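To the wet lab folks,

You asked to see what we're planning to order before we commit. Fair enough. Below is the target structure as C-alpha cells, and below that is the sequence we designed to fit it. If anything looks off to you, flag it before the synthesis order goes out.
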C-alpha cells in the first residue's frame, strides 16, 4: 500500500487515471457500433440468411470446421491481438477497416480464418480451400454457411464471435428484426460474476441468443437450459453446440420463464433486451426492451428468485434507466432472497443518443442526425435522464435473512466484476443485516496496491479526510475515511477496537474478512 500525503503529488496519477477512463469510454462507444439500431432501409429489404442448410449439416462437419479453425490458430488470444488495432465482429464496427488491413498483410492461415468468418472480408477461394480443405469448403457453401460473392471468392454468411475459447456463430446485426445476437461487451460480466464453489447441476441461460453464455456454462453444469422467445436463436444454439462439441444444452422456446415453469436452478444468467425503443426505429428482438427499455428487465428481476434453488445464484446484466423515481423499478422480494444491485456511472441522455445512433454514420449524416434526434426526443418524453450499466446478483439465503441493497460504483461493473469480488460484496452486505455484534468478529484489511491520498491542512488536522484508492479488482474505486479511521486501520486494531462506522463502510464495499 502506498500513501500519497499531498493531493498535488497525486496530480499526475489522477491525470493518467482520467485519461484511462476517457479511453475506456471511447472504446465502449465504438463497441456499441457492433449493435446498430438502424433507421435506414439498410438490410430492411433483405431477408435473414436461411438456417435450414446449417441445421441439416451433420455433427461431423461442424467438428471438422472446429478442428480446422483451431489448427489455423484462430484462438481468443489471436482475436484479441487484432482488437488492439480495432477488430470488430460486425460490419458496423468503426475499427473493421483497420483490422482487415492488418489481416490482409499477415497472410497466414489464422488471418485467413479471421477475415473469412469474423471480419467477413472475402478471401480467395484457393486460400479458403487451403484453410478448410476442399470437401469441407464445398459442404459449407452448399449449406449456406459460406457464399461466393464473386467468382473465386468466399466469405461467411454469418458472424463468428470467439467467446472464452468457444466459437459462436450468429447473425450480422444490421439486419435487425429477428437477427440473433452472439456475444458482446456485456456478456463477459457473466463469467466474472457466476462461478460458485461446488457443483452446478442445473443452469439456465434466459434470453440465450446464439448461446454464448449457455456454452460457457456447459463446462461447469451438468445440464444447461437455453431459453429464448425467438426460434431462430434456438436454431443457432443447436448449431453452436454442434460446432463446439457440446451435448448438455437443452434449447427451449418460450417467453421468459414459461419454458421452465416449476423448475429451479443452481445458477441463472440473463441479459434481457434493455434499450428504449424510440418510435421510428426498426424492431430488433435482441435489442429493445420496450418504450422505456426496462419492461423486460423488470419482469426478469421480479420473477427470477422463485426459480433459484436453495443457495443458488442469479446474475442479470442490463442497463438501468435513470429517472426521477430511480428506485421505483426495483422489485419487492421475498424474505429468503438476497439481491445486490451494482450500478455503474451514468451515461447521460445526450451521450447515450449519440452512442446508439453512431452506426447510422455508415448511411450518411442525415440518417445519423435523424437517429440522434429521435432517440433523444424519446428519452426526454419518457423522463429518462441517462443509462447506467448494471448487474443484479440474486442469492437464495440458507438462513432466510433476505435483503435488497444497491451499490453505486463509478466504473463499468461489466468490465471489472469477478467472482471473488462478488463473493466479498455479498458476504459484506449480509453482515450489515446481522446483529451489530457480528461486525466485531470480522477483520478489515487494506488490499495490496491501495493508494492513500490525504490533504495536508495542519490548521484542520482533526477533520482531515483520507481517500483510500483501491486497486483493480474492487468495484468501488475509493473509500473516504476520517483521519481517526485511517489511523485505526494503519494501527491494525482488532475488529472490536475499530469504529463501528468504519467496519460498516468496509463491509459495504467488500473489505471485510471473517
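Sequence we intend to order:
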Amino acid at each position: 500500500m502506498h500513501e500519497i500525503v499531498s493531493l498535488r503529488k497525486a496530480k499526475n496519477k489522477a491525470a493518467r487515471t482520467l485519461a484511462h477512463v476517457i479511453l475506456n469510454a471511447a472504446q465502449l462507444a465504438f463497441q456499441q457500433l457492433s449493435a446498430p439500431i438502424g433507421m435506414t432501409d439498410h438490410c430492411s429489404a433483405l431477408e435473414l440468411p436461411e438456417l435450414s442448410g446449417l441445421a441439416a449439416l451433420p455433427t461431423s462437419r461442424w467438428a471438422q470446421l472446429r478442428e480446422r479453425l483451431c489448427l489455423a490458430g484462430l484462438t481468443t488470444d489471436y482475436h484479441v491481438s487484432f482488437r488492439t488495432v480495432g477488430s470488430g465482429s460486425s460490419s458496423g464496427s468503426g475499427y473493421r477497416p483497420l483490422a482487415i488491413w492488418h489481416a490482409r498483410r499477415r497472410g497466414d492461415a489464422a488471418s485467413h480464418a479471421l477475415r473469412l468468418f469474423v471480419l467477413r472480408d472475402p478471401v480467395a477461394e484457393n486460400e479458403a480451400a487451403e484453410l478448410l480443405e476442399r470437401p469441407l469448403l464445398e459442404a459449407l457453401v452448399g449449406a449456406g454457411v459460406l457464399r461466393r460473392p464473386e467468382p473465386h471468392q468466399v466469405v461467411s454468411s454469418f458472424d463468428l464471435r470467439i467467446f472464452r475459447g468457444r466459437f459462436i456463430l450468429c447473425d450480422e446485426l444490421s439486419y435487425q428484426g429477428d437477427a440473433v445476437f452472439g456475444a458482446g461487451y456485456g456478456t463477459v460480466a457473466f463469467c466474472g460474476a457466476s462461478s460458485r464453489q461446488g457443483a452446478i447441476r442445473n443452469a439456465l441461460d434466459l434470453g440465450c441468443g446464439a448461446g454464448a453464455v449457455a456454452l460457457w456454462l456447459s463446462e461447469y453444469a451438468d445440464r444447461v437450459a437455453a431459453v429464448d422467445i425467438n426460434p431462430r436463436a434456438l436454431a443457432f444454439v443447436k448449431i453452436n453446440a454442434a460446432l463446439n462439441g457440446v451435448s448438455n444444452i437443452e434449447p427451449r422456446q418460450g417467453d421468459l420463464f414459461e419454458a421452465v415453469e416449476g423448475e429451479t436452478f443452481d445458477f441463472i444468467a440473463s441479459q434481457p433486451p434493455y434499450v428504449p425503443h424510440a418510435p421510428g426505429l426498426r424492431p430488433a428482438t435482441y435489442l429493445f426492451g420496450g418504450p422505456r427499455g426496462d419492461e423486460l428487465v423488470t419482469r426478469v428481476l421480479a420473477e427470477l428468485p422463485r426459480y433459484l434453488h436453495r443457495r443458488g445464484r442469479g446474475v442479470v446484466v442490463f442497463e438501468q434507466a435513470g429517472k426521477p423515481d430511480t428506485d421505483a423499478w426495483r422489485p419487492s422480494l421475498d424474505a429468503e432472497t438476497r439481491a445486490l444491485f451494482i450500478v455503474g456511472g451514468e451515461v447521460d441522455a445526450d451521450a447515450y443518443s449519440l452512442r446508439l445512433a453512431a452506426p447510422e454514420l455508415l448511411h450518411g449524416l442525415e440518417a445519423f442526425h435523424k437517429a440522434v434526434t429521435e432517440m433523444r426526443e424519446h428519452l426526454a418524453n419518457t423522463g429518462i435522464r441517462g443509462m447506467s450499466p448494471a448487474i443484479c446478483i440474486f442469492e437464495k439465503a440458507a438462513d432466510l435473512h433476505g435483503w435488497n441493497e444497491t451499490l453505486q460504483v463509478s466504473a463499468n461493473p461489466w468490465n471489472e466484476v469477478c467472482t471473488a469480488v462478488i463473493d466479498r460484496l455479498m458476504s459484506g452486505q449480509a453482515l450489515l443485516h446481522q446483529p451489530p455484534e457480528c461486525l466485531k468478529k470480522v477483520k478489515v484489511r487494506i488490499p495490496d496496491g491501495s493508494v492513500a491520498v490525504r490533504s495536508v491542512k495542519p490548521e484542520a488536522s482533526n477533520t482531515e479526510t483520507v481517500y483510500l484508492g483501491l486497486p483493480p479488482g474492487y468495484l468501488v474505486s475509493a473509500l473516504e475515511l476520517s483521519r481517526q479511521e485511517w489511523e485505526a486501520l494503519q494501527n491494525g486494531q482488532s475488529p472490536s477496537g475499530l469504529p463501528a462506522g468504519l467496519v460498516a463502510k468496509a463491509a459495504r464495499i467488500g473489505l471485510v474478512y471473517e
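Structural context that might help your review: The chain has 18 helices and 22 strands. The mean pLDDT is 80.

Thanks,
Computational group
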